[in-house]
Amino acid sequence: MCSVWEATRRKVRQAMPRRAERIPRNNSDSARRTIRHGGQDESSCPPYLGKETYSLKTITKTRLIVLLAAGITLCTASHADVNAQPEVHPGRMELEQTSFTAKTWESDGSHLTAIQGKLTYGERPVANALVQAGTQGRTIPTKKDGTFELLVDRSLIVNKLVRVVSVQDATIAGKPIEKGEADTILSASSAITVYHPIEVTKVMPSDTDASQVKVHARFRIEKGDRISFFRVDKYRISGQVVDADGSPVKDAIVWIDRDGGESFAKSTPTDRNGRYEMFYWPEEEETNLTVIVGTRRFELPEGKVFILPRNTSVDLRIRLPREGSVIDDKPSELVCTTSKGATYTGLLAGLDVPPGTPYFVTIPDREGRFVLTVPKDVWEKRPLFFETLLTKFVARDKILKAGDELPVGFVQPGNHDPRLLAAAP
């Protein structure tokens, strides 16, 4: 190849004269004449000679190829630079365990479980970032290797997000993180779920509606666990506070307690209609009644006490005296009547189905057994169960008990309630 390139270069040099005749800058026929270089027409000259060249440089094919190669390289590099995108690594949080069965609270702390987590950016650990479980948990800094330890309280059912809440002091390989890194690290999260396992024991057609099925299920309770299912928790004391003329008193506080201040109940401030409410567990014991309005304190006559009936809610209407601080205990000034309803608290289960889907569920018995009445086509889609700790006032004369069927829509899942697939029968 070398000898061929050398011979070609000599031919080119021999064919090119030292100078070329200048082309006149006009449109005359003389300007259009053919320039000959060693007997060759302009049309046969290489394009790099041009039409207004004062001198011709000797350029070998070797140099031409080198120049072309360099141009291609520059174009390719430039194109690559334009299309190159910065490499983005995802922030990632990993937990060694995310699902936990619920456990009864114990004074020795055995209901707490420690787990390890790790925060990374790509494959590199993120140090000194702050992570938090839920919105109320304490913030935990990540270590140099990106790890952190989290205590899970298994005494409360929950579906809780563990997320990165701050990267202000975070570093990667000892260097402060950049803005792009911070955004993806802050988006890293994982979730932990604490729940009571549920198993379906049998599914039977409804006796009254062929389009529905009866799903018998139960909470699986470990030996020694104590679960508070949905039961009466407190009764309501509500009523009205008025002045001596019968006008409602706003922002008054009604206070009921036993001697020594034990088992007290404090009402909400009265509204513009003088209405208030509070919740209490009455035990037919002697109680003190106090009404506080601003800096004034109203009480029953000395030596008098108030006795609330057991296992019922009451409506208590109080008229304050025109003068002094003693509440007259006459029926016209202090009127107490029973009222319906109670506050219930405890564990319930339901189905995670679209809003408006009609189904019924019963209150679990002490063994955790309950029954759902569900449209057959809904159940065939194998919906998830949910569990919730519900506190709710139910205004009805009859007290709810285990096995009673709750109305449609009574049990609704909260944002942080666990969802789970029940074990098949």
In short:
The protein has 425 residues and is mainly beta. Helices cover 12% and strands 37% of the residues. The longest helix has 23 residues, at 61-83.
Quickly list its features.
7-stranded mixed beta sheet, 4 domains, mainly beta, CarboxyPept-like_regulatory, 6-stranded antiparallel beta sheet, carboxypeptidase activity, protease, carboxypeptidase, disordered N terminus
Q: Please, could you describe this protein's structure?
A:
The protein has four domains: 2-79, no CATH class; 91-195, Immunoglobulin-like (Sandwich); 198-230 and 343-420, no CATH class; 236-341, Immunoglobulin-like. It is built from four helices and 28 strands. It has helices at residues 2-15, 61-83, 179-186, 376-379; strands spanning 91-95, 99-101, 112-121, 124-127, 130-133, 140-141, 147-153, 158-166, 171-172, 175-176, 189-195, 198-205, 212-219, 231-242, 253-257, 265-266, 275-280, 286-293, 296-299, 306-307, 313-319, 334-339, 342-351, 360-362, 369-375, 385-394, 405-406, 419-420. The strands form five sheets. Strands 14, 17, 21, 22, 23, 26 and 28 form a seven-stranded mixed beta sheet that branches. Residues 1-59 and 74-82 have low confidence and may be disordered.
